[in-house]
């Protein structure tokens, strides 16, 4: 009798869910939760920028109003300083952004700043520029994403943007 009970427990027979099926459901649930958490929101990007700016310990951070932008998945701001930020401040910004999941994809050349980088996190891309420009000095953050937890604006139907009457060819 004991052998039958042990075999029943090991094979998962004897009514109820098998251990493999329960484990598979738990793995699927964890994967779905991770996918939901992987979507980066505008608030999360702003939080990353705020934390990075605080780590730099210089200037004052301001975000630009992006409410009239064509897509809701935009974050733009600047950490304004009196002079061009020192390398240590920029390194602090990078350290925080990397810790928060932003990967440094590449260093890019930019005419309007001394240094510039392109970073990526999930479906978001960020341009980060540091240096002195005619408007002042500081670190500029410009991020855009493909998904940000809010509905994307839909394209108007062709009938909404075309002429009310279409010409008929002879």
What is the fold's blueprint, element by element?
Elements: H1 2-11, H2 19-38, H3 42-56, E1 60-63, E2 74-81, H4 87-99, E3 103-108, E4 115-121, E5 124-133, E6 136-145, H5 158-161
Helix pairs in contact: 3-4
Give a quick rundown of the structure.
By secondary structure, the chain is an alpha+beta fold.
Q: Would you identify the regions where 5 or more consecutive residues have pLDDT less than 50?
A: 1-18, 31-37
DSSP helix fraction: 25-40%
Q: Describe the biggest sheet?
A: 6 strands, antiparallel
Q: Would you list the SSEs in sequence order as H and E?
A: HHHEEHEEEEH
Note the beta-strand portion.
Answer: 25-35%
Residue-averaged pLDDT: 75
Which structural class matches the secondary elements?
alpha+beta
Helix count, DSSP H or I runs of 4 or more residues: 5
Q: Give the strand line-up of the largest sheet.
A: 1-2-6-5-4-3
Our Rg estimate from Cα atoms comes to 26 Å
Number of strands: 6
Tell the overall outline.
globular
Highlighted features:
170 residues; 36% helix; globular; 5 helices
Question: Overview of this structure, please?
Answer:
With 170 residues, the chain is of the alpha+beta class. Helices cover 36% and strands 26% of the residues. The protein has helices at 2-11, 19-38, 42-56, 87-99, 158-161; strands at 60-63, 74-81, 103-108, 115-121, 124-133, 136-145. Strands 1-2-6-5-4-3 form a six-stranded antiparallel sheet, with helices on one face. A hairpin with a 2-residue loop joins strand 4 (115-121) and strand 5 (124-133). The longest helix is centred in the N-terminal third of the chain and has 20 residues, at 19-38. It is globular, with a radius of gyration of 26 Å.
């Amino acid at each position: 009798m004991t052998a039958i009970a042990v075999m029943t427990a090991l094979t998962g027979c004897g009514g109820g869910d098998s251990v493999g099926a329960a484990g598979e459901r738990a793995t699927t649930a964890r994967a779905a939760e991770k996918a939901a958490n992987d979507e980066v929101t505008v608030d999360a990007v702003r939080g990353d920028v705020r934390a990075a700016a605080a780590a730099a310990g210089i200037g004052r951070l301001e975000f630009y109003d992006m409410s009239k932008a064509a897509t809701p998945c935009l974050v733009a701001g600047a950490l304004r300083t009196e002079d061009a930020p020192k390398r240590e401040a920029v390194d602090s910004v990078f350290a925080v952004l990397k810790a928060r999941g932003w990967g440094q994809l590449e260093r890019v050349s930019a005419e309007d700043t001394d240094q510039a980088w392109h970073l990526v996190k999930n479906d978001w891309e960020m341009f980060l520029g540091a240096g002195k420009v005619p408007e002042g000095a500081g670190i500029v953050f410009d991020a855009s994403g493909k998904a940000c937890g809010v509905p994307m604006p839909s394209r108007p139907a062709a009938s909404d943007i075309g002429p009310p009457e279409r010409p008929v060819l002879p």
